[in-house]
Recover the amino acids of this structure.
């Protein structure tokens, strides 16, 4: 997992206690392997498209070029775009085609199954009209707000760690040096961890860090102002990503039918 801070264009961090007015930059979590895969594919696709532009003049070249553009769009939304951003006002989960923004007050927990999961809870206010019993809260005959609790679990595409895969890689023997048992000073054998187990531990560490920050942010909010109903998470389609897949797909269809 790759973690960066203060990325250009990212929201500015909240001014924390004892930071002397310095804004805390957002923490950004994404897959380093997916980033490498994107750049490898991008270089290959550009080189191939240049070769087609120089040498290709037939219908097959047009179809191959359209397919390359389509695959590039898919790799972009699946590898380059996904990330999790711990910003000043909440967690932003960028999945391939959708964005989810969750205020810190609405984050009840962050855990890891096969993917990172952000658990949310918020209240939707309902107002009863005059004349309804107030159950001791205010004079009778006045309206009072009521709320209905809603819950939701948002899964983050960027942070994945299948448990079964980690177990398999941890138990499967290998001839690679990374898996060979090392001897401790006392003579006992210490088995080196497999890449799957190491990756699982790293993703679990990220989940714990996000859950702990959510607890701190909620505590700070309660300390500086009266508790309030958390705002609901906001989810929206990321239309540039949708177009990055849909438009090349239409070009492939047009090239095949031409």
């Amino acid at each position: 997992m790759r973690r960066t801070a203060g990325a250009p264009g990212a929201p500015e961090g909240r001014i924390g206690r004892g930071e002397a007015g310095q804004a805390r930059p957002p923490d950004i979590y994404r897959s380093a392997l997916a980033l490498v895969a994107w750049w490898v594919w991008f270089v290959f696709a550009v080189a191939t498209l240049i070769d087609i532009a120089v040498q290709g003049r037939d219908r097959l070249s047009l179809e191959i070029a359209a397919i390359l553009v389509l695959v590039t769009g898919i790799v972009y939304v699946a590898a380059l775009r996904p990330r999790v951003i711990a910003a000043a006002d909440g967690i932003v989960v960028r999945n391939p085609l959708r964005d989810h923004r969750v205020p810190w007050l609405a984050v009840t927990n962050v855990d890891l199954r096969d993917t990172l999961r952000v658990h949310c809870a918020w209240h939707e206010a309902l107002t009863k009209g005059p004349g309804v019993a107030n159950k001791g809260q205010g004079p009778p005959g006045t309206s009072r707000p009521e709320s209905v609790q809603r819950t939701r679990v948002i899964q983050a595409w960027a942070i994945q760690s299948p448990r079964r895969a980690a177990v398999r890689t941890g138990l499967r023997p290998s001839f690679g040096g990374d898996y060979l048992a090392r001897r401790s000073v006392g003579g006992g054998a210490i088995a080196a961890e497999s890449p799957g187990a190491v990756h699982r531990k790293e993703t679990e560490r990220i989940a714990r860090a996000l859950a702990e920050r959510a607890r701190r942010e909620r505590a700070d909010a309660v300390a500086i102002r009266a508790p309030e109903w958390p705002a609901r998470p906001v989810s929206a389609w990321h239309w540039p990503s949708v177009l990055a897949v849909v438009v090349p797909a239409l070009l492939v269809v047009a090239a095949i039918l031409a």
